[in-house]
Design brief:
This protein is an alpha/beta fold. It folds into two domains: about 20-140, NAD(P)-binding Rossmann-like Domain (Rossmann fold, 3-Layer(aba) Sandwich), CATH 3.40.50.720; about 150-380, 2-Layer Sandwich (Dihydrodipicolinate Reductase, domain 2), CATH 3.30.360. It is about 30% helix and about 25% strand. It has helices spanning about 25-40, 60-70, 75-80, 100-105, 120-135, 150-160, 195, 200-215, 340-355, 360-380; strands spanning about 20-25, 50-55, 70-75, 90, 110-115, 140-145, 170-175, 220-230, 235, 240-245, 250-255, 260-265, 275-285, 285-290, 295-300, 315, 385. The longest helix has 20 residues, at about 360-380. It is globular, with a radius of gyration of 21 Å. Bound molecules: alpha-L-sorbopyranose. Alpha-L-sorbopyranose (SOE) binds near residues 178, 204 and 275.
């Protein structure tokens, strides 16, 4: 670990706690609040104070702030990012707000953590990357919240692959299946409008799968071909039914720079699948399999073992030597989905302390965005293979 960096201008000295403001108090705001509340108790990172929770509706955000441990609530994010006692801005708002808030916060010298996907469009993502680069010169840190990188089993899978235990990676199968939209009566939300969400299952959950493909293999997607489909075209809203303008499901095949090939499938109408991010990686010397619905386990096959002994073994990823696990409970005592956000906050705070650029950076977020855009372009063209720039 490098020597602790001097605090960026406007940031506290190491002895002072970092003040956090979170923008958004729904599902992601709740998950991030839980992480900020616990991170300094379980990990050796700078102390944080949950200063302000921001949301549009004064009463609701005040109630959420009290419940989730925030000192205050507010409705105007612009006033909040101007405060001297706020050093970290955590953006949990819908995608269409990411770019405006992130750029303003970075320009104000605040460290920024933003929920995935980075933004709704390439243009917004590029603006965010430019602001993050300029801020980095001033010691200001930024990161995208692809929280599944912080599932201990997936972080360990990456280590096994990097250590060569799979040999040459040939194939990755990644699927992310949910069913909260399987019911045609499920109501309209901002997640089903292109202008607020950017895309449907593609940006919301295929983005996680694509990030995992690149994270696990350390490789980059070079080409994509894709297909999108909307099964339920209208959904009930407050004023009658409304048109759904995003995909319910997405499929893609991806070529990686190394020559490996990945398939990605994402659906929010996969009846019976609740939150199933499944990843399989096949290499010349071994294979791995993971399912988020059993997130404490990793299956590993060592193909160098004698054929008679070969088979997938189930590793319970709770040993002190496994990533993040040692900070929690004795081995075998499982942690859950919410802990991935605590691990994410841990890595973000460690990067601030050490003056290092955390991963996934906004550049990595933009790279995922380019893959999403290529899948959309290919789907619209109904056959094309689209090359990914950069
Ligand atoms: C909704 O589909 C959602 O909450 C995603 O937005 C999250 O990123 C994923 O972790 C769980 O599902």
């Amino acid at each position: 670990m490098s020597a602790p960096a001097r605090p960026a201008p406007g940031q506290p000295t190491p002895a002072q706690p970092l003040g956090v403001a979170a923008i958004g108090y729904a599902f992601m705001g709740k998950a991030h609040s839980h992480a900020w509340r616990n991170v300094s108790a379980f990990f050796d990172v700078p102390a944080v104070e949950q200063r302000v929770l921001v949301g549009r509706h004064a009463d609701e955000v005040a109630e959420a702030a009290a419940r989730y441990g925030w000192a205050e609530s507010a409705t105007d994010w612009r006033e909040v990012i101007a405060r001297d006692d706020v050093h970290i801005v955590d953006i949990c708002a819908p995608g269409w707000l990411h770019a405006e808030i992130a750029v303003a916060a970075l320009e104000a010298g605040k460290h920024v953590l933003v929920e995935k996907p980075l933004a709704n469009t390439i243009e917004e993502s590029e603006r965010m990357v430019a602001a993050a680069r300029a801020a980095r010169e001033r010691g200001v840190v930024s990161m995208v919240g692809f929280n599944y990188r912080r599932v201990p089993a997936l972080a360990y899978a990456r280590q096994l692959i990097a250590d060569g235990r799979l040999g040459t990676v040939r194939e990755v199968r990644a699927s992310y299946l949910q069913d909260w939209l399987a019911d045609e009566a499920a109501p309209m939300t901002w997640r089903l409008r292109k202008e607020t969400a950017g895309s449907g299952a593609l940006g919301d959950i295929a983005s996680h799968a694509i990030d995992q493909v690149q994270f696990l293999t350390g490789d980059t997607v070079a080409e994509a071909s894709g297909r999108l489909h909307t099964f339920v075209g209208r959904r009930p809203g407050p004023d009658g039914t409304e048109a759904v303008t995003v995909d319910d499901a997405a499929w893609a095949t991806l070529s990686l720079a190394s020559g490996a090939v990945a398939s990605v499938e994402a659906s929010r109408v996969a009846t019976g699948r609740k939150n199933s991010l499944r990843i399989e990686v096949y290499g010349s010397a071994g294979a791995l399999a993971f399912d988020l619905e059993r997130l404490g386990e990793l299956e590993f096959l060592d193909a160098t073992a004698p054929a008679e002994e070969r088979g997938f073994r189930r590793i319970v990823v709770t040993e002190p030597g496994h990533p993040y696990a040692g900070a929690w409970w004795p081995q075998g005592h499982m942690i859950g989905w919410e802990h991935t956000f605590t691990h994410q906050a841990r890595d973000f705070l460690a990067a601030i302390r050490d003056g290092e650029a955390p991963s996934p950076s906004f550049e990595e977020g933009l790279r995922v965005q380019r893959v999403l855009a290529a899948i959309e372009e290919s789907a619209a063209a109904k056959s094309a293979v689209v090359a990914i720039a950069g």
